[in-house]
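JOB MANIFEST
job_type = single_chain_structure
chain_count = 1
residues = 396
[input]
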Amino acid sequence: MNRLPLSGYRVLSSEQYGAGPYSTMFLAQMGAEVIKIEPPGAGDTARAVGPHFLREGESVYFQAFNLNKRSLTLDLRTERGQEILRRLARDVHVVANNLRGDLPAKLGLTYDALKDINPAIVCAHLSAYGRDNERARWPGYDYLMQAEAGFMHLTGEPDGLPTRFGLSMVDFITGTIMAIGLLSALVDAERTGTGRDVDVDLLAAALHQMSYPALWYLNEGDVTGRTPRSAHPSVTPSQMFRTADGWVFVMAQLPKFWGVLTDRIGRGDLAQDARFATPANRLANRAALTIELDAIFSTQPTAHWLGLLEGHMPVAAVNDLPAALDSDYVRRIGMIAEVEHPDRDDLRVLASPIKLDGERPPLRAAPLLGADTDAILGDLGYDEDAIAGMKRDGIV
């Protein structure tokens, strides 16, 4: 790919674990030079997350969030570390972090701390609860946000326990929102010459994702509850149905798809049944309709029903992880890629979901800890002896 949209932009990021690294990985894949600042010795805590490792202290987990980046080990708590940070900040466009809310100011990562040397710099902050309230010092993680924001109340079977998402979706959406915020601020900084702070936090992002159930409650007092079979709260049939060998998710979200469904499965009589004739009637008689459709779908395997319905209405198999990732379709669209890593020549990773001019951007493996420290410091004017001294002193 000849031209990536963020080529020439430089991002410093004091980041760890999931949400912040997920955000900056998008920037790196779009061509930005993302310099990942890590504590000397241990590095990002994600490097130690098991159970699968490429070498000691280099986890497969880490690769999920850090493709295309460079690694600089630097102790920001030291005077020399702060000196290096400020020298780097002169020539970067963005300084990002996903630290606890009270730490960016202490570590010199805010716009107020850096504007004197780079007035156009954008400082992006991702924390658990924000930097400007009584929870700023609180640690926090995705699972807590799913609990507090109401996600777990909405997830699972009605008679089961509140259930979290199978993935850390609050981390991922917060990271995505941070990327949007910092890119917007970057556009403004280029236009005006003045940067700013951009703040996002996990809890606010989670609350925002409550979207229409939140508005239903805030305006109508309507409390959305859990529905059987992961069904849509107000439309049916839009849920899982049991097949002869598994499950299929069928979504007749629009009235026309109800007609398509009954026609394609050869059950036009259901469309004429008074209990199911209108969207309101189908919702009122969801349990009865589920029994009817279960009886139909359970007579044939999932592949049979997909063959009848795919492309005609919204439908999907309910896949396990192997079925989802070993799919021929997933491979044909290029969502599985291979990168070279010092410990594995054909490390398989997920490609970017973004296409540029019809192509997914190129990938390279996440860096080994401190892999780029010498080169980055050399570019700043430090000679080999100075770098060796800083390594001895634990600065880098």
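[summary]
The two ends are 34 Å apart (CA to CA).
The longest strand covers residues 344-350.
exit_status = 0
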